[in-house]
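Tokens as discussed.
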């Protein structure tokens, strides 16, 4: 994981992995669930991804910042 964040309207927290995957983690029972796979929005043909952070807009949209080498 590279970032973790909690939303007031959501149980548990979201975890951003270096490969771009977004996980929902529930610390109360130790479970995790994959919500978005990194390859759903990162093109592995362009090189190794490196996600840096994420945040929510007021409308609930999730933004993810990532770097990807394009040789």
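Sequence:
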């Amino acid at each position: 994981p590279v970032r973790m964040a909690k939303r007031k309207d959501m149980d548990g927290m979201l975890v951003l992995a270096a490969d771009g995957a977004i996980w929902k983690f529930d610390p109360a029972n130790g479970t995790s669930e994959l919500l978005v796979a990194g390859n759903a929005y990162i093109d592995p043909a362009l090189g190794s991804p490196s996600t840096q952070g994420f945040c929510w807009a007021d409308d609930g949209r999730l933004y993810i910042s990532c770097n990807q080498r394009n040789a």
